């Protein structure tokens, strides 16, 4: 049976063996606890703007492996931050993807979704679900009636999920201790902040180079190479060779498609990973720096503070991590 985004999300907790905590669920915030026979943990859904926008925050460990398949009859954009890598997902006829820690963006255009969570492995994520109407309305208010700009905005965010600011926004969503209407106002302000980053990035894209499907596929290969070993230092020439381009064209093509340089993209992925390691591991700061390719912890701390407005040591103190 085909479902609307609202129907799908409201049925999801029960399908995953969560029960609503009635006394805590109010003001558009639905709070769930996992039934003890099936695991432990929490699941929260925040509803906004006549169900045009949703924010989900989950932290649970299932006792049994489970799968969830649904066919959704409404277009939507999902932007997620995962702090664990124990899940799989698939949209439509695409290949099943293993979740790794970090940001994921995808558009569902009325296709089946498939979610898989493995038993005894923790799942932690925050998700922003934007219906097509919410997304289009935001960008039409900014650009007028130019629908092409709305399409460009969607393409931009799908190409550029690694901005450190996005990761930090999700951390702020997870960490917010406010309640009631103040919490709702804060959470929606974070969504608007995220979309404003998209606008800013789009308006900086003015590079005249033509890319075909093969070019884009080869550019993505170079990103995979960088992602597979964040501590490595691939040269521009090495990456250009993988992309089957000259070094000069590779630099232009990368900036055209991803909105930034290869070095900046690699730095963003490194800082995103560092954010998760600082919060979810017991590595010393120098160890975290080395894991993401910085052997000078002072230089790493400077880059981290420039991206997030707080140093790595202070970030751990804020979260009560020694």
Describe the fold and architecture.
This protein is an alpha+beta fold and 322 residues long. The protein folds into two domains: 2-200, Jelly Rolls; 213-318, Homeodomain-like (Arc Repressor Mutant, subunit A). It is 47% helix and 24% strand. Strands 2-3-4-5-12-7-10 form a seven-stranded antiparallel β-sheet, sandwiched between helices. Strand 4 (39-48) and strand 5 form a beta hairpin. The N and C termini lie far apart (49 Å).
Helix/strand layout:
Blueprint: E1 2-3, H1 5-15, E2 18-20, E3 29-34, E4 39-48, E5 53-62, E6 66-72, E7 75-82, E8 87-91, E9 97-98, E10 102-109, E11 112-117, E12 123-131, H2 132-143, H3 147-159, H4 164-175, H5 180-203, H6 213-228, H7 236-242, H8 247-258, H9 262-280, H10 285-291, H11 297-308, H12 312-318
Parallel strand pairs: 1-6
Antiparallel strand pairs: 2-3, 3-4, 4-5, 5-12, 6-11, 7-10, 7-12, 8-9, 8-11
Helix pairs in contact: 2-3, 3-5, 4-5, 7-8
Domain module count: 2
CATH H-level superfamily title of the largest domain: Jelly Rolls
Percentage of residues in helical conformation? 40-55%
User: The CATH topology of the largest domain, please?
Assistant: Jelly Rolls
Number of helical elements: 12
Order of helices and strands: EHEEEEEEEEEEEHHHHHHHHHHH
Keywords:
single chain, 322 residues, alpha+beta, Jelly Rolls, Arc Repressor Mutant, subunit A, 2 domains, seven-stranded antiparallel β-sheet, globular
Task: Give the gist of this structure.
With 322 residues, the chain is α+β, with helices and mostly antiparallel strands. It is built from 12 helices and 12 strands. It has helices spanning 5-15, 132-143, 147-159, 164-175, 180-203, 213-228, 236-242, 247-258, 262-280, 285-291, 297-308, 312-318; strands at residues 2-3, 18-20, 29-34, 39-48, 53-62, 66-72, 75-82, 87-91, 97-98, 102-109, 112-117, 123-131.
């Amino acid at each position: 049976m085909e479902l609307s985004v609202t129907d799908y999300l409201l049925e999801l907790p029960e399908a995953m063996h969560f029960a609503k905590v009635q006394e805590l669920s109010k003001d558009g915030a639905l709070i769930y606890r996992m039934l003890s026979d099936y695991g432990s943990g929490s699941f929260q859904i925040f509803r906004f703007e006549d169900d045009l926008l949703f924010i989900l925050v989950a932290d649970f460990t299932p006792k049994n492996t489970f799968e969830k398949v649904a066919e959704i009859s409404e277009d939507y954009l999902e932007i997620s931050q995962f702090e664990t890598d124990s899940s799989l997902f698939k949209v439509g006829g695409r290949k099943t993807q293993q979740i790794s820690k970090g940001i994921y963006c995808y558009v569902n255009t009325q296709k089946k979704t498939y979610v898989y969570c493995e038993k005894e492995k923790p799942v932690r994520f925050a998700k922003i679900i934007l219906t097509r109407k919410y997304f289009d309305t935001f960008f039409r208010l900014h650009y007028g009636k130019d629908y092409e700009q709305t399409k460009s905005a969607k393409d931009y965010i799908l190409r550029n999920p690694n901005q450190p600011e996005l990761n930090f926004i999700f951390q702020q969503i997870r960490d917010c201790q406010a309640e009631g209407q103040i919490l709702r106002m804060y959470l929606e302000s974070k969504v608007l902040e995220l979309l404003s980053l998209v606008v800013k990035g789009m308006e900086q894209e003015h590079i005249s180079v033509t890319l075909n499907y093969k070019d884009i596929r080869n550019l993505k290969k170079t990103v995979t190479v960088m992602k597979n070993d964040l501590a490595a230092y691939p040269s521009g020439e090495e990456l250009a060779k993988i992309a089957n381009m000259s070094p000069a064209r590779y630099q232009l093509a990368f900036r055209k498609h991803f909105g930034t340089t290869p070095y900046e993209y690699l730095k963003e992925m490194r800082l995103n990973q560092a954010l998760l390691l600082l919060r979810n591991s017991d590595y010393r700061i120098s160890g975290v720096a080395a894991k993401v390719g910085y052997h000078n912890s002072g230089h790493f701390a400077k880059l981290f503070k420039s991206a997030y407005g707080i140093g790595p040591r202070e970030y751990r103190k804020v979260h009560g991590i020694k």
